[in-house]
Design goal:
heterodimer; A: Rossmann fold; 11 helices; 8 strands; globular; B: about 40% strand
Chain lengths: ~300, ~60
């Protein structure tokens, strides 16, 4: 991390996501699709200098990272409907998103496939850290059913407003969103069965605090199951310095071992990680991480 | 927000209990209102159905 302060990072992240979501939020129906190129966190997932420059202001992706699993460029090289849908479809491969409005799928910028959602059981209480436009919440809501609850927390007012609007479209009655910070969760102790998060924690200037809060709100035996961007090898200083300048989400990402260490320090056990490196980008991966709060 | 959100909601700062005051309700949804933490003497507004549970010092950044 650079010498930017935590507040500066938060402000940068919030502004960048607010600016991304406003066109979707304000658009008349049918929604104008957002360029996939606006939704990226990877260093060289964008192919031109111009795109990279754009990313200077696109700090770490709140809920917006890259699709590693598809092997495609996460940003794409052009904007447009077909490409964006391809990215979302690839990311959520095997998951039925066909009943979700474009205003939901267009702002789904996760970096992992939703295995966390697939593992959910009816009746569970789920918390999504950095819920964005709400796609993972709505998919989770289908899994936990009427007896379960899904809570989304995001620090960007525009994202929460969009998520709430989307909840109306989906007709989800077991999902709630609220403005909040993942470092200061407004959730009681031992209230949640499963915490999910898709490419968000890398954005936090205080990841230890995020994991401590996650541990606190989980019930004993509860599960943390997140996807996030991590480094799989130490980053050469010159690269890190360069990336700091234009790709906040990579600059904010931790070395995988440090990331897992932070989870362990928070008290979790049975920690596992399955990193998938970006094609052609050695050292940067999307990690599917699972950890449990002791019984 | 629906009233049952209060079951899990706490003050983000002190993690203590919070109380709900409803100004406007529609179809079981609280559209306008506020959530108070007595310990911190902080009010968290509910606007357009969305509870703003950001800690006070982070709201206006």
């Amino acid at each position: 991390m650079t010498d930017r302060t935590a507040d500066e990072i938060r402000e940068h992240v919030r502004n960048s996501y607010a600016s991304r979501v406003r066109p979707v939020l304000d658009a008349p129906e049918p929604i104008q699709l957002v360029s996939a190129g606006d939704a990226c966190c990877g260093p060289d997932c964008c192919s031109t200098e111009a795109e990279a420059t754009t990313l200077t202001m696109v700090a770490p992706a709140t809920d917006a990272c890259c699709d590693i699993s598809s092997g495609d460029d996460c940003c794409g090289t052009a904007s447009g409907t077909e490409e964006n849908l391809t990215r979302v479809e690839a990311l959520y491969k095997g998951t039925d998103t066909s009943d979700l409005a474009s205003s939901i799928t267009d702002v789904a910028f996760g970096c992992g496939n939703p295995t966390a959602i697939a593992a959910l059981q009816p009746g569970q209480v789920v918390l999504d850290l950095g819920s964005g436009g709400g796609i993972d919440c709505f998919l989770a809501a289908k899994m936990v059913g009427d007896t379960g609850r899904v809570y989304g927390v995001d620090m960007t007012p525009e994202m929460i407003a969009l998520a709430r609007k989307n909840a109306g479209k989906v007709g989800a009655t077991n999902v709630e969103f609220r403005l909040g910070e993942i470092e200061h969760l407004p959730v009681g102790d031992a209230a949640v069965d499963v915490i999910i998060s898709n490419c968000v924690i890398n954005l936090s200037p205080d990841k230890d605090q995020v994991f401590r809060e996650a541990f606190r709100v989980l019930k004993p035996g509860g599960r943390l199951q997140v996807s996030d961007i991590v480094w799989t090898k130490p980053v050469p200083d010159e690269i890190k310095q360069d990336m700091d300048e234009w790709a906040g989400c990579i600059a904010g990402a931790m070395l995988e071992s440090e990331y897992l260490g932070a989870i362990e320090r928070a008290g979790f056990e049975r920690i596992s990680s399955d990193p998938s490196e970006y094609e052609g980008r050695e050292g940067i991966a999307s990690a599917a991480v699972v950890a449990y709060k002791p019984e | 927000m629906r009233p049952d959100l209060m079951e899990i909601l706490v003050c983000p700062t002190c993690k203590g209990e919070v109380t709900l005051t409803v100004y406007k309700e529609s179809d079981g949804e609280i559209v306008e209102g506020r959530i108070d933490c007595a310990a911190c003497k902080v009010e968290y507004p509910i606007e357009d159905g969305i509870p703003n549970m950001l800690p006070p010092d982070l709201r206006d950044q």
